[in-house]
Structures are given as C-alpha cells and as structure tokens.
Amino acid sequence: MFGLRLDPIAFSLGSINVHWYGIILGTAALVGLLLAVQEGKRFGLSPDFFMDLLLFGVPSAIIGARIYFVAFQWNEYKHHLMDVFKIWNGGIAIYGALIGAFACGIIYFRKKGYSFWRVADICAPSLIAGQMIGRWGNFVNQEAYGGEVSENFLRHTLHLPNWIVNQMNVEGIYHHPTFLYESLWNLLGLVIFFILRRRPFLRAGELLFAYFIWYSLGRFYVEGLRTDSLAFRGADWAASLLNGIWSPMKAFGFKQGFLDQTYGNIRVSQLLAVLLIIVSIAMIFIRRRSGAASERYNDPIINFKTGRPAGAEESARASAQSDDKPLEHSSGDSVDGAGNSGIKE
C-alpha cells in the first residue's frame, strides 16, 4: 500500500460491507431529488412525483450505465459473468446512465401526462449536481484518474490537501485528479443553471440542452487526460480531428493520458461529447425556428391528459375533501347538517 489510501469500505454490518462508493452515489441521488422537488413546487408538481421518478430512474440509470460499460469491456467480462454485477467495484459509465435515465423518464412523464421537455428541464440541475457528487466515488475507489504527474504538481501547483494528494498516489505513481476537475466543472455548471433558469428568454427544453452542452464540453477535455477511457478502432481522420480539438490543453501544460492503440484510437466519451454538443445546438435552433419551443421555461406546466396546470388535480381533491368536512362552531363544537350539536348531553 502506498501513502494513506482511503479505505473504500465505510463500515460493515456483519458479513456485509458497505462501500463509500454506494454511500456517495446515494447521496448524489438524494441531493438531485431535493433540488428537483424544490423547483417542482414552483410548477405545482408534488414531491411524490419526483420520489416515484427516483425509484424508477436510479435503477434504470445503474442498469444502463453498467450495460454500456460492460459492452465496451466485454472481453474482460465474458469469462467472468458474475463480475458484471459487482458495481461496487466501479465500472459504470455516465453516458450509459443518462441513456437509462432518459429512457425511463420518457415513459414515466408520458404516463403521467407531462411534456418530457418541461420536466427534464427541472431535472437538469439535479443531473449535474448528482454527477458532481458522484465523481467522489471514483476518488475513493482510486479509479477514473488521469495520466502521471509529479507530487509537486499536486501539492504546489494545484495546492491540493494531503488527503487528496495521497489518494492520487496509485501504486507509487501520482495521477491527475480528473474526478476533481470534472466535479468542479459541474459545480460551476450548476451555478450557471440556477441563474439561467430564471431568465425570461429560456424556452422549454433548452436547460436540458444547456446541460448536454456544458457537461459534454468539460467531459471532452477531462476524458483526454484519463488512462482508462473506453475506446474503439475508428477512422484515422476522426481520431486526428478529436486530438486536434483537444490540443489547446497542451498550452496549459497538460498531455493526453495513455490510450493503447491496439485497443482503439477513438475515446468513446470524447466522440459522444462532440456529437451531443452539435446535436444540442442544432436542436435549440431547429425547435425555435419551427415553433416547437413556443413554451418558455417559466410558463405553467400543463398536463396534456387533463388540460389543466400541474397540481390542479391535487388542489381540487384537497378542496373537495375540505368541503366534505363537518361545519364547526367558533368554539370548536361540530354540528351536523341539521344544525344539531355534536356534543352529547
């Protein structure tokens, strides 16, 4: 063991080990839920709506993330199938999680009668907040780190505390804390989203697209530093194009993390990041030109099944229940419909 590495196991309950990785991911999901619930109240969406979404969305995201990762690492798992289920050891992919979560969201929102774009906008800050926190799970597991750096770089250039520097010492070699770069990038994005969603020019769906653009931009450059990127063999011109886009990082003294060319020459996350940025910008433009984005973020959310604003059903039910209650005297004595006192002589 090198340095003072953090123990990935938080505590044990008998023979069951509870890992920090799971605790951190659970915390990320909880923070995301609270953010969505708080913003949802402005539009009349109940906390139960988001609680149910979390109950369906988290398993969908984990399954999607694991399938995505295993698909690109199949040669390592095909002879050890039980390892596919050991997610506490790491090995889940953010883009796979997004695919699973959005597939669940599309079905759930439609069943509830709400526009996907409107509710997804509310959830966008929750997504980036969850990713900001979740990256610390990679930190504890000593995974998803970048290429080799000097201890001096971590201590005196980045001015990182000892507990981070020590954890970046993997088998005697210090590495870029890419988890920290991405986490801080997401924190900045979260602040921007909080400001952006109060601007009157923002249309339905555009906060979600802003999330894709912001996250993908940061992920593209951070991914280039990593040494564990999922990759595939693609056209040389495409690999050169991605390397060219990443090259401004060299001006800041960074160099790309090792990528085994026999394994692949294109980092999957970098390619997806570029495609998501292009598609998101195009979708904002197309939806505005076509009139599909006529609704603004701050407009009331209408349930397309009832034609009423979100929360109207709950208000109507609460009102009906209130009307059914027996009348009361000012002294607190209830009376029946004939006006007789409910107090027995």
Automatic annotation (TrEMBL):
Membrane topology note: Multi-pass membrane protein
Keyword Transmembrane helix found: yes
Any GO MF annotation of the entry: phosphatidylglycerol-prolipoprotein diacylglyceryl transferase activity
Principal EC category: transferase
Known EC number: 2.5.1.145
InterPro entries xref list: Lgt
Binding site for a 1,2-diacyl-sn-glycero-3-phospho-(1'-sn-glycerol): 135
Compositionally biased spans, kind Basic and acidic residues: 322-331
Key words, A-Z: Cell membrane, Glycosyltransferase, Lipoprotein, Membrane, Transferase, Transmembrane, Transmembrane helix
Region span, Disordered: 303-345
Entry function: Catalyzes the transfer of the diacylglyceryl group from phosphatidylglycerol to the sulfhydryl group of the N-terminal cysteine of a prolipoprotein, the first step in the formation of mature lipoproteins.
Family, as annotated: Belongs to the Lgt family.
Name of this chain's protein: Phosphatidylglycerol--prolipoprotein diacylglyceryl transferase
Species of the source: Paenibacillus lycopersici
